[in-house]
Amino acid sequence: MPITCDTSTKCYRRKRTLTQIIWTDMDANYYSDYLRNYLTDAGDIRKDDDDFICTRADAASEEYEVQCRGGAPPACAQELAMSVLMEGLD
């Protein structure tokens, strides 16, 4: 599914139902907000790179969804999603 990022940096994947769009949008926004705050606090120049942030946020949201659908507890799915979001960032 294509990744879309609007000017307000809301990241989401196109879904078939409104419920799926709402939940995916909320998940991706959580991850994009978290990453943007992290990059800002770290003084990283990528804090203004919406494509970088949206791509990472969407990947994290996707990981969370895959893990939950696979039966992982939410806390475990969240930890794995955060690993995807923060991969390579120190």
What is the structure about, briefly put?
By secondary structure, the protein is mainly alpha-helical. It has helices at residues 18-41, 50-69, 74-86; strands spanning 3-5, 11-13.
Task: Produce the secondary structure layout.
Blueprint: E1 3-5, E2 11-13, H1 18-41, H2 50-69, H3 74-86
Antiparallel strand pairs: 1-2
Helix pairs in contact: 1-2, 2-3
Describe this structure in words.
With 90 residues, the protein is mainly α. The chain has a single domain, classed as PG0816-like (Helicase, Ruva Protein, domain 3, Orthogonal Bundle), CATH 1.10.8. 63% of the residues lie in helices and 7% in strands. It contains three helices and two strands. The protein has helices spanning 18-41, 50-69, 74-86, and strands at residues 3-5, 11-13. It has a two-stranded antiparallel ribbon with strand order 1-2. Helix 1 (18-41) crosses helix 2 (50-69). The protein is elongated and about 35 Å long. The relative contact order is 0.16.
| Spatial order of strands in the largest sheet | 1-2
So how many helices?
Answer: 3
Pattern of helices and strands = EEHHH
What radius of gyration results from the CA coordinates? 13 Å
Distance, first to last CA: 30 Å
Mean pLDDT: 77
Tell me the helix content.
55-70%
What portion of residues belong to β-strands?
Answer: 5-15%
Can you summarize the main beta sheet?
2 strands, antiparallel
Q: What is the level-2 CATH architecture name?
A: Orthogonal Bundle
Number of strands: 2
CATH superfamily: PG0816-like
